[in-house]
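INTERNAL AUDIT FORM
Audit reference: QA-55
Scope: verify that the stored structure record matches its stored sequence.
Auditor: D.O.
Record contents follow.
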Amino acid sequence: MAGMIRKEISDEVKQAEHFAIMVDETKDIAKKEQISIVVRYLHDQELHEEFLDFTPAEGLDAESLLQKIKETLAKCKIDHSTCVGQCYDGAAVMSGCISGVQERFRRDVSQAVYIHCYAHRLNLVLVDCVNNIRSISEFFGTIQSLYNFFSSSVVHQERFSGDACQVLIGVSALNPNHPTFLNKEKLSGMAANYGVEDKDLSVELHQLRRLIARRGGNGSGHTYATCHHAPTVQRCIHRFV
C-alpha cells in the first residue's frame, strides 16, 4: 500500500517537473532520531503537500542528513535535481550557510532556495513571548523538568509505568481544589499501590467527609489540616512526597 502511494506521488511530481522538500527530525518512543520528509508540488493547478517517509537518522551531522534525504528521494524515484526549494528549521546543522544541509544541497542543486520554516519561526516567537510571562514560563519549565526526570532513567520510567500510574491519578484526588477530591474511585489505585486495604480507605474517606462538613471545609487550606485525622490518607501523601 505504501509503495503504491509513493509511486502515485512520484508520478505527480514528475508531471509537475519541479518540487520543494520539507524536512525535520524528531525522536520516536524508542529515542531513535527519525527524519520526516514531505514534498510540495503543483498538480492539476493545485498545491499538494505529501508525506514521503520516516527514515532513521544514522547521524545528525549535515552530510549524513543530506545523504538520507537524497536516498529517500531516490527510493521514491524522485529526481532531486528538479528540486527548487528546501524548507527546514533554523538549527545550524540544517540552515548553516557554510556547511549546513541547505548549503550542501545547493552545491548540487543550485536553484533549490532555502526557506526557514514559518511554523518553526512562529514557534520561536511564541516561546519567546511565553518566557516573559512568569506563570507560563514556570509551568512549561516544570513540564520540561518532569520530562527530563522520567526520560533520563529507565528506573524512573518503570516506577510510573503500568499500575504505578494510579499514583499520579490519586494525587489529584488529594487536592482540595480538584473536582475529584476524596473520590474513592480515583484514590483506590493509589491506596492499593501503598498497601492500603479498600475497607480502611472507605472508612477514612467517610470520616474525612464528615469532618470537612462539620468544619465548613470548602476546598480551602482548612481541608489540608483535616487530612491529618486520616492516617491512611496521610500515609499515602507522605509516601508519595
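Auditor finding: record pair retrieved intact. Residues 2-122 form a domain with the Nucleotidyltransferase; domain 5 fold (CATH 3.30.420).
Action required: none
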